[in-house]
Amino acid sequence: MKRVVLAAYARGNPKPGDFRIEQVALPEAGEGEILLKTLYIAVDPLLRFSVDETVLTGAGRMELGMPMVGPVVAEVVASNHPAYAPADVVEARTGWQEYAALAPDRSDYRGPPRKLDPALAPVSTALGALGGPGQTAYEGIVNVGRVKAGETVVISAAAGAVGSIAGQIVKVLGGRAVGIAGGAAKCAALLDLGFDAVADYKAPDFAAQLQTAMPEGADVYLDNVGGDVTMTVLPLLKRGARMPMCGFIAYYGVGMEGPGPDRLPGFYRLIMNKGLEIRGFAGMLAGRKGLEDIAGWMKAGRIRFPESIVEGIEAVPAAFSSVFSGHDHVGKLLVRVGAPAGPGA
Amino acid sequence: MKRVVLAAYARGNPKPGDFRIEQVALPEAGEGEILLKTLYIAVDPLLRFSVDETVLTGAGRMELGMPMVGPVVAEVVASNHPAYAPADVVEARTGWQEYAALAPDRSDYRGPPRKLDPALAPVSTALGALGGPGQTAYEGIVNVGRVKAGETVVISAAAGAVGSIAGQIVKVLGGRAVGIAGGAAKCAALLDLGFDAVADYKAPDFAAQLQTAMPEGADVYLDNVGGDVTMTVLPLLKRGARMPMCGFIAYYGVGMEGPGPDRLPGFYRLIMNKGLEIRGFAGMLAGRKGLEDIAGWMKAGRIRFPESIVEGIEAVPAAFSSVFSGHDHVGKLLVRVGAPAGPGA
């Protein structure tokens, strides 16, 4: 089987050459273990921290030469555990490899592999609308953002997995959704998803577009980005606006201090002048309650979940790298690694 | 009479030479006006914004050659207004001058001069515990910080007017108060006021002192400062800590961008990793309810309010400048400008 291992720690944004494809022997399911065949790999932007020598997060840094760890959807192909049977489909964190053996009873804090119901939704959505990104969008809009009907919500990285769901949740709640994305194609896709207005951060008149999109400002800013985009958004927020913060992709490539002039004084001024409420949160800590609501809204046709799928484990390094360079995909970027043997998926 | 006018906009921290003392004719109370004799001037750090060419706040910039506007306690010496009588003592925003005539019915958004009750507390406290700083401390600890019994609260600029009251409110609420101040004398004064522990930000082992002062971290950080102090505090906060933000004196001398490397990426990381809740707020918007509680606590002997008083309007420029250079005063820094003619103060 093939797997993707870390060849070099990333400097700045990860490059395909930071990874290496290896051929290794197929693992076997030992006592209490299950053997999983990977169907989909999510090239999650948060994995950026695992490949950085300077990380300060608790997520832990990868060792060079080890396969990348991250969320996947996989099929059980052999089981020595009573709770799992061949053809079951699960969400797990086995990472960037075609097969993996693991012991569900010795899983990390995220819990054992989550069994999926293919009748509920396509299993790939377990990595998107019905997985971590969906939880993050729900937590940000419903619990941290506390969005009410009639409010305007502006969302950065709106064409991404979190942003595209978040904007649709805003619409379900009766709010007005303004999406920020890079390029005309992504902006058009957001309008197609039901966003009320968009602004293209790659356009020279981004600030003017944003002002036109939300002439009275915004009550909530769901930020996934930081950097130039956020410094353009903040002056347009209403007094007392809430700012749920679930990521900062503009800074994933730098440590505690970035290369430019110090923008923290300006950030402080804007927080004070606007009386902003900012809260950092992690969707994976939010529990599964939000996913039930999202599943219901998807069934009712109120939320659609776009996916961009590329094929083959060899495509993973380039797909991961593209996440940080403003790629053209809309929704969750997935790599399809294998076809299911059973009927489950 | 004498007044202090702005001679030059501040570059970096204000210097005494940025101001000039002028001798002008005594004003008279016109129709509907009252004539006020200034008793105390508060050298409020927020006035920093009025003397800066680069300000972005709504407070408005001073014109060169004009007398500085800011909070004072004054005595009514003549009145053509039915609500005010000679010997009344008021809090007003007439600024850095020995006398001023004003029309209460044409006051700005802060409302007409507030009549003080000398029987309740010394009138100078209207510029401190029973004025803007008291409101800010109350809003930060009670409403924004939502401090509960048993929680640990760390306070920057703790020897200042806001901080010294805030720490005592924490004690009233049953919390643990940790104060950050510059120098051994200020730290000793905080312990004397009832703070449970202190850390000296001017000491080379500041970070270690802070860790010793709050070995389990803190639930709330009342920030008035920003800069190095805050970047030392944040890694020690508990997960989900609240951070009411009422000022950022470390940045008052710079515009939107500071001179050093960009610390905004590190700030984002800490917000996310700690799941922090940050909220900017202005005490003056908080209403007068908090002041009733503080007055009651002062009467009950549960809150003391230290004041540092210097004499004479000529002392105002140096006193104001000292606020930004880590002076040795504890509590509210006031300039006594005149003695009351009546018995009111």
Question: What does this 3D model show about the protein?
Answer:
The structure is a homodimer of 345-residue chains. Chain A is of the alpha/beta class. Chain A has 2 domains: 159 residues, Medium-chain alcohol dehydrogenases, catalytic domain (Quinone Oxidoreductase, Chain A, domain 1, Alpha-Beta Complex); 156 residues, 3-Layer(aba) Sandwich (Rossmann fold). Helix content of chain A is 23%, strand content 22%. Chain A has 8 helices and 16 strands. In chain A, strands 3, 4, 5, 6, 7, 15 and 16 form a 7-stranded mixed beta sheet that branches. Chain A has a 4-stranded parallel beta sheet with strand order 10-9-8-11. In chain A, strands 1-2 form a two-stranded antiparallel sheet. In chain A, helix 2 links the parallel strand 8 and strand 9. The model of chain A has no long low-confidence stretch (mean pLDDT 91).
Keywords:
alpha/beta, 4-stranded parallel beta sheet, Quinone Oxidoreductase, Chain A, domain 1, 8 helices, 7-stranded mixed beta sheet, homodimer, Rossmann fold, 16 strands, 22% strand, 345 residues, globular, 2 domains, 23% helix
